[in-house]
Every structure is written in structure tokens, then in C-alpha cells.
């Protein structure tokens, strides 16, 4: 595929240059309009493979993802402040313009999780929860109503705003906790969680993302589930892509690419059990056991059927296609 001559790439490049030239990415009419145009451009299903684009476009995409991340963070911070001004903030979540998307995405993630877990988790972690932790709030309110949620974010101001939203709520204030730290600095505590959610913007490029995933693979409990957000097709101009083949130490259970207004793809993986080396190896090493972690299982992923836009769950790519 050509780079500069492709109509989609050309349009994305034009929007990138306009967004990059803005003095600020704080919510305002110009910012909102440009990001909306970008999303509308990248939303339709498209067979483009961003990994095969030329270096110039790859560099633009990397910068654009960071701009999108900055803009998204400022948008969430802005609305978190507005919501925090209400006596009961969680009763006004619909003021956030993309709240309905989070309702759909959270329902999708819960449905995928339910297909691969026989019990409701007692304790989950959300890494990269931000100032407006809508996924945690929606899951805790609508789907996992007895589960405790531990939200991790590196930004203390984000956690402060997020805590202000849930602290007035009699139930969620007792089940949602906020930790200000880089997840790379969390080790043994990760073993407590049956499910770990990883936000799309934790790890803004491939190397950063895999560093976080490898850390989770090292310290999560064997058999625990990892729910990641990725991107597919032209949507990869908006968010980093997680290649299921590179989830070392995890068995990929499900990969799903929505084609509606839910932008993020969803990947569910299970951490492999740690296998002890066989007796002959142990004898050679003087009886010292050094655990090994099996590599990830990987396969081709089927594209989502755009004709079935009304029912996202029926078209899940599940483990039968990965065996």
C-alpha cells in the first residue's frame, strides 16, 4: 500500500498537522471538532495494516497517538472536574459525551470475561484508570456489583479527581480504591487480583506496552486474566496496537474488533501456570528449581462481521479459533 497516495492516510496526515499546530489540546470548539473529524475518519472498517506503512507515516502515527492520549486525558480531567462539582457526581455521568461508548465497551468486556471465567472475581485491578474511571465505575455499578476495584494511575491529580467522584457514593466508596504509582513498581501485590484491566493508553508505543505486559506476566497470579485494549485497522491511528502473538507468558482466549462507535479492540488472555522443570533438569542444576513460563499461543484473527452491527457478542473471535 502506498503511503502518501492513500486517501485515508492523506486525510489522517492533514488532521494530524492541524491538531499538532494547536496551542493547547484542552477541550474547546476547535479541539473537539478536529478530534471528532479524526475519529470519524478512522472509525469505518478498513483493511489497512499500519505496521506496513512507510517510515514517515509510522512516525506521524506515533506522534498522533500521543496527541490523542493527551487530548483524551485533558477531556476526562475537564469533565471529572465538572462532575465533581455535583453533590452526587455519579448521577450525572451522562454529561460526558462518550459515556454511552463506555457503557457498551464495559458490557462487551464483561460479556467476554463471563465466557472465560466460571466465577465472579472478588478483586480486580485497573491499570491507567485516569481522572474519570468510567470502566471501573460502570463495571462496579452494573456488572460486578460485589467486586472490589483497585485503580492504579501514575498521576496523583488524576487519582484525586477520580476519588472525589466515588467518595459520596455509599457503595462504590467502599469498593473502589486508588493507588498512585507506576505499575512497574507494583510486584507482589499483583498476585491478589483475579483480573487485571490494562487501559489502551498505558504504554503509548509497542516497546512501552510490552514492557508493562511483561511485568504483569511476571507478577500476576498463575491463571489470572488480563484484559487489554488494542486497536484494529485505521483505528490504530488513534490507539496503540497489541499484537496477541507478543503476549509472552499468556494464553490468548479472545480477540474482538468492534466496528461501531466502540473504538477499542478487546483482547483477553490468561496467564499460564508456572511449570516446574523436570527432574533430570533439576538434577543437573543441583536440585534448584527455576520456573519457566510457557510462550503465548497465537493464531490468525477473524475480522468482525460489519453486517451484524447490532450484536457485538455473537461475532466474538473465541478460543475455538485459537486452538
Automatic annotation (TrEMBL):
This is Uncharacterized protein. It comes from the Eukaryota. It comes from Pistacia integerrima.
